[in-house]
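Quick question: who can interpret this fold?

. . .
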Amino acid sequence: MLSLFRKMLPREDRFFDMFAAHAKKVVGAAEALSALLDGKDVETNCALIVTLEDQADNITRDVLQAVRRSFITPFDRGDIKDLIQSMDDAIDMMHKTVKTVRLYEQTEFDPRMQEMGRAVVEAARLIAEAIPLLDKIGQNHQRLTQIAEEVTRVEGRSDELHDQGLKALYRIHRDSGNAMAYLIGTEIYGELEKVLDRFEDVANEISGIVIENV
């Protein structure tokens, strides 16, 4: 019945289409972030992330407008708002990382930063897999729960990489006396950690939706 009703809604009120479109922007930004951390076309990938973040913001606004306009939503209005905003926070944090990279004109990155970039891609792809499954929560609740747990594991791995990276930075720059390089490195590590934290927030939102609707 709900599926039939959704088909009757105006196109802009089809929440899952908008969620999927946003998730696609997030994955694209994650892939660009990983590429730039690998030293590939750094400025081009920075610009791409900025563009994708702006497009994701537009989708977020569309979702929030649809929540206010719709008589019936696929699940709780507050959950819809929290889910899309948590997804948007993830890509916003990638944008913030780009600002730091550009500000300090960074073109080379530590190996553990590169590993964290790959973790960002993994988390983004997991979230993109989860989004369409929310259309049939009852049928997909086990996989949704697994995805949330996998994202949490990815975030836990990134915490370890963050700590290892900071220790390596300290050892390198303690002897060289290059305090600026150390500070820039710690800032980038911190922002990458926050990107993964935001993905864990998305996973927690998905877990909450599953619990409330199964």
